[in-house]
Structure prediction request, 219 residues.
Amino acid sequence: MTIFRPRGTIRAWHRHPYGQAMLLHDHVYVPIPKSASTWCKQLWAQGRAVNLLVENLRDLPHVVILRDPIDRWIAGFAQCQVGNDPDWEGHWERLGWDWVFRQVVFDNHTEPQVSFLSGLDLDRITWFRVDDDLESHMIQWMKDQTGIDHTGLVADRYRGSDQQPRMFRGGRQGRSQAELQTMAREALATIPGARQRLEDVYQEDLEFYHSVKYVGKEQ
Prediction:
């Protein structure tokens, strides 16, 4: 039994989803924000919601999906910032990219993935990763392990919300998640030291992401 303990401090964010999980056919799916969790919960919808902090489920096999930490930060930054009013004095565009890359972690969408693995038995986890093969690998695995066949299911993976700008009072239009992601990628590519800053903050995440053996992937 290998119980995982993150090296860093786990932040106690408001409505932090740590402990949230789905139980289906004696398998426990542990969702991580911005790691295909919305999409995957639809596949596991025939199960029931559980809390790892309350129920003793450690002896059951677990399922976890990881995402490249830098790509996840881009998506997480866009989601957590899209709802901020552009007229607010604390809006990130008023504060600038230097402030963004000093802060880095804003909420559970940008908190390191390893935070959500704390206390789990690594020897009982089946690992998937967010890539072009995730859908086919997860669907095949679920068919083999649970007998549930999602082949042909059109899961609502993205909901289209990333393309829609948020509207604020007075008809002021904010940026969409897609636009924010594009801006973040450009900033990482052009601002000296920006990418290194993320790699420093997510060092443990990056090491862990590249260390596990994923379903359907040669290690």
Summary: Helices lie at 37-43, 69-81, 92-95, 97-103, 134-146, 177-190, 194-201, 203-209. DSSP finds eight helices and five strands in the chain. The CA atoms of residues 162 and 177 lie 4 Å apart.
